[in-house]
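Teaching note: in complex prediction, the entire set of molecules is handled at once rather than each chain in isolation. The prompt given to students was simply: 'Predict the structure of this complex.' The entities are:
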Amino acid sequence: MMTLPGVPQVVIDRLPVYARTLAMLKSKGRQVISSQELGDELGVTPAQIRKDLSYFGRFGKQGRGYNVQRLGTELRRILGLEQEWTMVLVGVGNLGRAILSYRGFAPEGFKIVAAFDMHSEKIGTTVGGMKVHSVKSLPQYLKSSPADIGIIAVSAASAQDVANVLVDHGVKGILNYAPVALRVSEGTRLKNIEPVLALQSMTYYLKGVVP
Amino acid sequence: MMTLPGVPQVVIDRLPVYARTLAMLKSKGRQVISSQELGDELGVTPAQIRKDLSYFGRFGKQGRGYNVQRLGTELRRILGLEQEWTMVLVGVGNLGRAILSYRGFAPEGFKIVAAFDMHSEKIGTTVGGMKVHSVKSLPQYLKSSPADIGIIAVSAASAQDVANVLVDHGVKGILNYAPVALRVSEGTRLKNIEPVLALQSMTYYLKGVVP
DNA sequence: CCGTGTGAACAAATTCACAGCC
DNA sequence: GGCTGTGAATTTGTTCACACGG
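The expected output is the structure of the full assembly:
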């Protein structure tokens, strides 16, 4: 499946949610599901699910619904989840160490292959079975071992510099945990993980609530 | 400032980004900034910034721009960030422990006041200076000490049960780290932190790239 | 002259509603 | 009869462009 230029980003962002839910349903033995039922499960409208899927093809059977296994496989193919993706981690402070020991990436085919830090006291140590290299060796490392994705877990002050190095050396996607708005070139995908921002927009609605 | 009903969620989600950037600019000594310059900093259009702010009032000076300090303070007030918010954490596995030791919440006024787990071997232990209670005592705890926000860091299988308990006992916002789409009642705010989903939508764009 | 604030114009996303097929 | 797939209608969100004030 090619990357269709016309598919909105919001649609792409929902596909992994569908895929994950289908995997869960399959593990429970469910074989067929309608857009209505899947929508109930996820809290979205059935029309949205059908419209989203229609960007990529026709996966359902009229009068019946979708084959859970088949649709799950199709979505994983569309998203490019059939291959393994390599990632480098930059920053092994508190956050970086938690990311290294996080058990959620590997089963989904996302593999951290190297870790880097700028602080001399961390370099050479081993964290979660992974040796920590100097960030100065990152360009050289990426030249000999290109990685698909870079994870940034450094301070806000250093994050843009790290992003520049990653992009300059062929990384095509960045998962940013630093609390700063990074600027990356066109053609580089950037996703931010920001629990604090999530809380800060939530409080707008909470403050009005009478206890 | 009241919670205006007509303000789109997307606008609310951008305000913390503006607030954070203004705080950074202020710490660098910047006193005045135009929507153009702020937009350049963040990668958004100046019109969007002005329109977003216009939902809440008039904060700028024509011909000059915005006072960095003043606009930052206004945004924090609008978002409800002048008060401290209390949070309970449920689940002290790998992820929960990382959340407990995360240093980013407290400086922004988000305080974890208690931690809970369902596994007997964890109950009674101390993690990051915080005693771990049985999740069975969560309802009772919330009755005597209401919390604003619940953080869910349990398995996907248990997350909905935990969310139900939190909502039933007065929690008005949930920050969910479990890889599952939770359903909560109207009037409860839910934000999901899902690095794996972020990666899985990113790969849609990466797979097409020629190396 | 510069940059805000804002209706108006435009674009994007969602939902509707129904023809078509199982 | 039930449910998909999809144009059309509607809603939501973004950008334009300019009157106005400093």
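Point out the following to students. The two ends of chain B are 51 Å apart (CA to CA). The helical segments of chain B are 9-27, 35-42, 46-54, 68-79, 94-101, 138-144, 156-168, 195-206.
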